[in-house]
Amino acid sequence: MRLRWMTRERTMAGRRAPSILDWLVTLALVVIAFLEIASGAFPGPVAVAAAFQVASTLPVAFRRLAPLPAITISVVVSLPYVLAYGAGNSLAGAVTLLLLVYSVGRHLEGRGLLAGTAMGLLMIVELGIGGRLATPEDWIYVLLIYGAALVFGVALRAQVERSISLALAADRAQREQEATA
Predict the structure, then answer these.
(1) For residue 145, what are the CA distances in angstroms to 117, 148, 149, 155, 164?
(2) Which secondary structure element, helix H or strand E, spans residue 17, and what is its range?
(3) Taking the CA of residue 165 as centre, how many other CA atoms within 13 Å lie in the half-sphere pointing to its CB?
(4) How buried is 177 (Cβ within 10 angstroms: 0-12 exposed, 13-18 middle, 19+ buried)?
């Protein structure tokens, strides 16, 4: 439990803020993106690709606090770049999308989950528009990978909620037993 300070959410000016771990993950993704840009993985001018990668990756830090705005910002930032230059072949971009889609499943319910899923699908369509998904097999593969991330997030949320309700029921039963003793 010594690393709890690293994963704990913070507050700044009375608002919730990302944990240190969220910032470290985001920083690691930005560094990987810069290495990919330097290796020529992105079409278009280097400065534009760098700005695009930073702007589309920064929402990862806020994925647990505000998953729908995070994935929406990433989609909105990515679309003009993809339309102008095409999609790059990026590990940082793939991990960013996986984390954002997982967070939608893990932290949202109902309409938010539906809207976040639509944003995730739009990000996948952007890959197709950018020329990264050329065959039906490419589309199926990408949809399966990101669909699995979404389902994993939903399943983990359901498991945590069930564990909490069982713990509350056990606590309530123990209190009732002590009260009758």
Answers:
(1) 13, 5, 7, 15, 29
(2) strand 15-17
(3) 6
(4) exposed
pTM of the model: 0.82
Measured between alpha carbons, how far apart are the two ends of the chain, in Å?
A: 36
When pLDDT is averaged across residues 42-60 and rounded to a whole number, the result is: 91
Q: Tens digits of per-residue pLDDT, 62-111?
A: 998 999 999 999 999 988 998 888 887 889 989 999 999 999 999 999 99
Q: pLDDT by residue (tens digit) across 120-131?
A: 999 888 888 877
Helix (H, G, I), strand (E, B) or coil at 12: strand
pLDDT at 9 over 80: no
Structure-token pair, residue 79: 């679309």
Contact 116, 71 (CB under 8 A): yes
Query: How far is Cα 51 from Cα 69, in angstroms, rounded to an integer?
Result: 19
Query: Which residues, in sequence order, are CB contacts of 37 under 8 Å at separation 6+?
Result: 46, 49, 50, 53
Residue 41 sits at the vertex; the CA angle it makes with 123 and 24, to the nearest 5 degrees, is: 70
Three-state DSSP at 135 gives coil
Q: Distance between CA 145 and CA 96 in Å, rounded?
A: 13
d(C-alpha 76, C-alpha 61), whole Å = 17
Between helix 91-107 and helix 46-57 the angle, nearest 10°, is 20
